[in-house]
Structure formats: structure tokens, C-alpha cells
Amino acid sequence: MPTRPVAAVLAAVGVAAGVLVGRPGLESVAGCGMSGDFYPSQTAKDWVSYADHVVVASPTREQETNRRNYSKGAIAYAMDRLVSFRTDSRLWSRTSPRHAIGSDFDVVAPGWEVYRSSGTRVAQMATDAPRLQVGHTYLLALRWREGAWVVLGEGGAVPFDDHTGDQGEWCGRVLSKEDVAEGERFSRHADHSMEKALLGQNEQAVQRALDGASRD
Predict the structure, then answer these.
(1) What's the gap between Cα 105 and its chain centre?
(2) pTM for this model (two decimals)
(3) CB of 152 closer than 8 Å to CB of 47
(4) Residue 66 CA to chain centroid, in angstroms?
(5) What is the average pLDDT value for the chain, to the nearest integer?
(6) Which of 21, 40, 80, 123 has a Cα-to-Cα distance from 113 of 20 to 30 A?
């Protein structure tokens, strides 16, 4: 059973199948993509415990980075994407952040794999999380780690198109808040993720959740 409502709705439409499905870019293991969380990232308490800043931000451009060439196997090479963001608003910062957040910043995001035989380029995904694509807006819990900004983990990036929680790009697909609400019928009732808490909510709801977690 999917843990959270967005995973549930993608499972319902066949994205979270646990296999590489026919449509390019929907690479799936327990949602989509391979897990790579740096820090706990699900709840408001996780965010205020491990993040330096929580921002609303929009990608403005991307470029390929970290290319890896393979001499054997089906994949000829793979690369990440360096995604440049515009900081639309800063909603929370820890008292002594590890690094200041500016009006723009970069994040390394999942990129592409290229098949040796066909040259087909397939989008890589993060597990149960947005891919972070130009043309969309996101709520991000960011931490300064080894000289760069990273999203805490798959729970630290929430679609935020039109400044509305859970509306926008997720796992390479565009979902409305109504799509995600439908997924709640299949998600676990014990789910306390920010994704679920912020369904259909705006920046003020984010700030209330983080302020409350800071006081706990």
C-alpha cells in the first residue's frame, strides 16, 4: 500500500508499478526512481530539525552535469541535471543556518540515462518526489551539505504550482490537488507528511506548520 496520497494516485494510474513501464521517464521502484534521502524529510518536525531554509522556488534553467560513461551494459551513459532556481519566497530559516539562501540557487536533480543500442534518453526520477522541472513551482526544505544545497529527501519537495500544496509536477507528471485528494482514499491514515498536511494549502499554512513544529 502506498504510504502517501501522491504515491497512491500514481499507483492508481499505473506509474508506481515497480518496473520500467512503457512511457519513457516513468522508472519505478516503490513510486518512481531510486531512493536517495540524505535526511529525514517527511514531517514538519523533520523539516525544522534538519533543514536550513524552507522556500517557495521556481526552476529557471537546467544543464547537464556529472556525466558517467559505461563501457558495458544497456546504458551507454547517464548524467544528472544542475537545476537553477529563483527564490520566490523564504518561509522559514533556522536560527543559525549553515549558509544564507540567496535570490537564486542551484540543486543537483535526477537527469537522464541513454541506452546504448537505440540512443533513447530516459528521464531518471527521485523516489516519490518531484523531478524538479522548469515551468513549475515547488516548496523545498533545503540544507547546506558539502558546499551545495540539497533537498532533505523525497518528502522535502512538494509541488506548489499556483502557490497551492500538492498541485503541479510530481514524478514527471502534472497532478492537480484534486488528483492528490483522490489518492488520500488509498494512503495510510497514520501519514503525517508535509505533503498530506499541505494538500490545497498556501504559504501561510506552511508557516503555521513549521512554527508549531519549532515550538514542540
Answers:
(1) 16
(2) 0.83
(3) yes
(4) 19
(5) 84
(6) 40
Enumerate the β-bridge partners of residue 34: 126
pLDDT score at 152: 95
- Total length of the chain: 216
Question: For residues 209 and 48, is the Cβ–Cβ distance under 8 A?
Answer: no
Amino acid at 186: F
130 within 8 A of 88, measured Cβ to Cβ: no
Burial state string for 121-160 with b = 16 or more CB within 10 A and e = fewer than 16? ebbbbbbbbbbbbeebbbbbbbbbeeeebbbbbbbbbbbb
Residue 79, C-alpha cell as written in the block: 548524467
Residue 130 grid cell:
518531484
Q: How far apart are CA 58 and CA 194, in angstroms?
A: 19
Residue 8 parent element (H or E) = helix 5-12
φ, ψ of residue 101 to 5 degrees: the values are -100, 135
